[in-house]
């Protein structure tokens, strides 16, 4: 509501420019009802949006009250997308209601994100209720609603749309609010949380920016992957954050969620920015000056300034914006000599390519007391084919070489939703599943691999195989190197959304501190799957206790950076002993009984 | 006989005898030391009229309580190696109950599983001593063909535990899926037999056979492998062929590209020598399969658009329906960079843009709008 008022203020100022135009961001609705806010694809399609994720049951209406500046006739457009275009009814259909007017126009039917014209209506009162009415429960999506006195469709192309949006909202180029910290951590997965805690315990004032309402990333109750790996030197910190070894997708993730959120919130010198998504970072002279972020529902913006930043976004966004070197895809087998002959091309290819491990969307169903109907899902069948299942574990994974895990994440997520709904529909054909209903389907993409920022050292399979004891070893792991591939590569009859894992048993291996800061951005640390590693090197330490160790290690390094006013590299070149002693001392801090 | 052997085995085990005498040789059609029919369960193609003769090698498999069991190579009439084989007699023990499992195993020249024959008078049996049914043999064959089976990384006792108990090191996820996956992949009531057979087939003998083959490899063997339908053979050959051999065998390689699994196709497109992309004759057979091959292979083909002749661009303009969104974008972007686009290509794009059933028609519409500006 606040943002709507804000938009209206700007509107009043700019009356001359945009007479009676009004843009309502769906994510800013007063009440989303049963719709969920999805901010995962802002960088690609331009905005967080509302999605009717009802797993086949239409969700409750999203509602808001719009303050119209003038009573007049308004033309109405909705920015939406049919997420499975084809020769069937669009799965995510919905309608709009303004005041007492139910528009007949069914929305969610156009290919690709863009505007659908709803109709024109006479607005006769200043305050009108606007509602989104879901018709299917199958992921209809609404980004924004545009009211205009002119019958002129807003721009659709992403570039034009962004500037149009800023103009109509009269947004200044830069956020007005600036906040200064000792350390800004972007991304509240296990690595980001651990970095924040480790730095805060050393007295740093930390901002932790995270685009979801809860912490943990892939380990959160929203994605539900259990944490694996060892604690290394950081058992006390990581036990505040990790999970039990429940099956992936288990509702037990909620218990660990509370523990994690409470623990991070207990630090007075961590300012936690939940539901804030970073969208830019600017570097001057190879030094990041600030990170800009926006609230995922209100649209409010803030600028975060600090001498040091941690990129724990998973996708390496901060580094990407700032111009850090990064890699994506599989190196050729000769690049680092990462061959495993037994698995040949599946492990490390002759020629480099852009294949990576895929993303998972976990899901589950449960048996109820009564018969449960599930709608027909013809639009899901081209993906699911004859596959049938009643829950989805880690093998439900999707990667394809024409899809980038960052740029095409929405299509990847949607492909998995089709796989899930179709496979469940197939399973429901069997009488023994008559009382089964979908209990939970994540709508968040659980990524394994995307951008990898380049540090002074690139961790490889050979480092793991040899168990190289680096002088600056700060993270250690005993977990096998485990690289996934899509089973469809070996047999076209396999579904394209199921993966297989290849495990290489190694001795205990170590990750050097030099893999945890950027090679060319002087004040940037990285922790999490976007650390400095090769594709195969990532196979082992991509799991969340290991990435948590990375986070804790960079949190402590940041404290030395502050103490001596040096950059991350100088901790390695000038203060390594003190740094390693500080890490070593972590082992001797007692874990309170309540946290064991 | 089966019960007597079992009793004998248990007896020896009980009194601490570690070794048995030499195994009983198979007394079936292989007794004549040659074969002209494929093994009963077989994963490779069998050329009609092929006759194989067994010859001893210095390879062997060490079997608990039984000692070394020799590996023979099966050669064709030209004395060229085709398969490796061994007559295996191995104890299978579960809960203190031991039986002998007799089976003849076959490996490819690369040490991969190739098939098995059952021993006519000694059928495989389950834990409750019931004999394997036909479906059970087929399932065992399927299991042995899976070189990354769940049996690979687990000890036998880990496979019969409840899934919630162990925290398996290094697995993305174990609990919940494990037991189900084991049940799905092994013959019901014969986990121990399956486990024993899988680890025999995929054990150290695999590397030993491959090493022997590598010591014998020559052009003839490489080309025979290229001619095979076996993916491992094809990959082995493609990795060892010279640029000249690629060019000389381009039609066979294009055939593999058409018929092979996606893994081999992607290898081919990525590793074709540059001369293919500079020659219309050499590259056309690959483009001809554009609409038939998998999405990954199509993407890799499209990476070579800049070297493709106009005829390819024209043919592709009739295949827009099979392209994914990003593939279509890539194709249209390539056209946009050209000085001139053949009218027939533009016509095909226009037809696509005007088709209401095409998901990505709007991309073609946008392209045409920009092109006409």
UniProtKB/TrEMBL annotation, chain A:
**Name the record gives this protein:** FAD-dependent oxidoreductase
Keyword match ATP-binding? no
Q: Which domain of life is it from?
A: Bacteria
In terms of InterPro entries, this protein maps to: FAD/NAD-bd_sf, HdrA-like
State the UniProt keywords alphabetically: 4Fe-4S, Iron, Iron-sulfur, Metal-binding, Oxidoreductase
Q: Which organism is it from?
A: Euzebyella saccharophila
Q: Give one Pfam family, short name only.
A: FAD_oxidored
Please give the PANTHER family that the UniProt record associates with this protein: COB--COM HETERODISULFIDE REDUCTASE IRON-SULFUR SUBUNIT A (PTHR43498:SF1), FERREDOXIN:COB-COM HETERODISULFIDE REDUCTASE SUBUNIT A (PTHR43498)
Automatic annotation (TrEMBL), chain B:
Q: What is this protein called?
A: Uncharacterized protein
Q: Which domain of life is it from?
A: Bacteria
**The species this protein was found in:** Euzebyella saccharophila
